[in-house]
Amino acid sequence: MSQFANLFSSTRIPRRNKDELKSHWALWPLKVGDVIEPPPRHILVLRKSQCYTVNVFEKDGTASPPDVLEARFEAILADKDITDNRPHHSSPIASLTSADRDTWADARSELLLDRVNERSLQLADSALFALTLDETSPSKLSDVSRAMLVGDGRNRWFDKSFNLVIFSSGKAGLAWEHSWGDGIAILALFEALFKSASDQSPRRPSFTRSSSSSSSSSSSSSASSLPQDVSRLQWRLSSSSEASIKEACVAIDELTSKLSLSVFRSNLLPRAATKKSGFSPDALLQLSLQLGYSLTHPEQRTSPSTYEAASTSAFFHGRTETIRVASPESHAFATTFRSSSASASEKISALKAASARHRTSSIDAASGKGCDRHLFALRSQRSLSSAPLFNDAAWKTWSTIRLSTSTLASPALEGGGFGPVGPDAYSVGYGSSNEGCHFSIAWWNGREDQVDGKRLKKGVEEALNEISTAVARK
After folding, report:
1. At a CB cut-off of 8 Å and minimum separation 6, what does 308 contact?
2. Percentage of the chain lying above the pLDDT 90 cut
3. pLDDT band at residue 238, thresholds of 50, 70 and 90?
């Protein structure tokens, strides 16, 4: 898997017009003069919008023991400069990573004019990954998903390959940047973490926040009061940089205020039972989305242009191809299931045909027989960008995604999702297990005539019931 090389110590550097993906592991061993620079052994830690580095490997290359790591993290929790909310630490510089990429590129160039900022950015870029110690403790699935996706936009370093987010309740998850890799790589990491944690015996922390805070109360509030392997990143901000940070905070607040999420679970269509019935679990969940969309938008006579990601990791440097879920068979299926006069046999026949077509489309996409990436490459050629095909009305309908979907299913996951890909699009993260299925629907609010996730949720729930009934009668 070529993507694993970018899993750790990689970052997305903002550049005007086109970002740069930089992997520090790929550069190692890095020779500076006659000295070989050691590989990164630190992570980037964010708490209350402040940035720290914490070494998680010792100088000899061994992993730092759990009690040592606890002490380092406790030092951050007890950092008096932050717990006292000192004014000179009020600028959440990480918010810049949420800004428009060209805006962030310009702001980063301004920061790099100062050597202190340059060193801090180098440490952030080369960190193994970002860890967010979040002060919130959401409990509802939709609130957890929102917090994992974006939080308040000030306590995440969105450029990093992934942010490990830990809430004050102990619930944890990953928010990851997509340009370096796909779900198959991040899922491998998730499952490895889950197995490692599950195999370990429970242990009581050696420290508590209250005891660490009291023991640190008489120490200096400067960054030098932190342990040797913990450092707070230092920044020297010009008035222009301060203004950029404020603008980024306003922009992310405005953006997140428009984001709506609906997360729900169902005990219908459990994975093992679905397979036993002779159907693909993924096909039936995708068809539940097709029928749910049709029930939500009965005024639309055509099927929604739908994206489902298929991994092409079997190929050298393979990434993804699109499974085109909407098909004549899926349209006939939705029409049949919505018809009050359709018989049970007609419904199951339509379901079988649509499921079979989905299976064929999925195999074709994963086998390199899809067409989306090929057409994307053609359209990227300046000489072909104005070709009649790309100006045809059918192309506009086909390329305007209304349902963008992706599935990650694993015992290590409680759920997952992603943001909307367009103003009139739904994004749907979904998965199945032997207990049922789950969906995470995201959309931009304010256009309820075109996109309404609450109605789609009801439509999908009705579709799940209809399909489950049909399968039971099979």
Report:
1. 286, 322, 323, 325, 362, 405, 406, 407
2. 73
3. very high
Same fold, 2-257 and 260-472: yes
Check if 438 is active-site: no
The helix or strand, by DSSP H or E, that contains position 23, with its residue range, turns out to be strand 20-23
Q: Cα–Cα distance between 304 and 302 in angstroms, integer?
A: 6
Q: 178, 317, 358, 438: which one is catalytic? A: 178
- What band does 33 get if pLDDT is binned at 50, 70 and 90? low
In the block, tokens 């269509």 appear at 269
H-state helical runs in 231-316: 239-257, 271-276, 281-296
Rounded to the nearest 5°, which phi and psi values hold at 412? -80, -10
Residues 6+ positions from 122 with CB-CB distance below 8 Å: none
In the block, residue with structure tokens 């120490």: 219
Question: Could you give phi then psi for residue 212, rounded to 5 degrees?
Answer: -65, -40
Q: Where are the domains of the chain?
A: 2-257, 260-472
Q: How far is CA 334 from CA 80, 291, 358, in A?
A: 60, 5, 14
d(C-alpha 156, C-alpha 148), whole Å: 10
Q: What is the pLDDT of residue 211?
A: 41
Angle between helices 239-257 and 101-111 (to 10 degrees): 160
The DSSP 8-state label assigned to residue 167 in this structure reads -
pLDDT value of residue 199: 87
State the DSSP string of 220-255. --SGGGS-TTEEEPP----HHHHHHHHHHHHHHHHH
User: 69 near 229, Cβ under 8 Å?
Assistant: no
Q: CATH number of the domain at 260-472, please? A: 3.30.559.10
d(CA 248, CA 242): 10
Chain mean pLDDT for the chain: 90
**pLDDT at 200 (0 to 100):** 84
What global pTM score does this model have? 0.89
> Looking at domain 2-257, what is its CATH homologous superfamily?
Choline/Carnitine o-acyltransferase, domain 2 (3.30.559.70)
Q: What pLDDT, on the 0 to 100 scale, is given for residue 451?
A: 93
What pLDDT was estimated at residue 197?
85
Determine the pLDDT at residue 218: 32
Mean of the pLDDT values across residues 282-297? 98
DSSP codes of every residue in 86-124:
-GGG---GGGGGGS-HHHHHHHHHHHTTSHHHHHHHHHH
State pLDDT tens for residues 405-448: 999 888 888 889 999 999 999 999 999 999 999 999 999 998 88
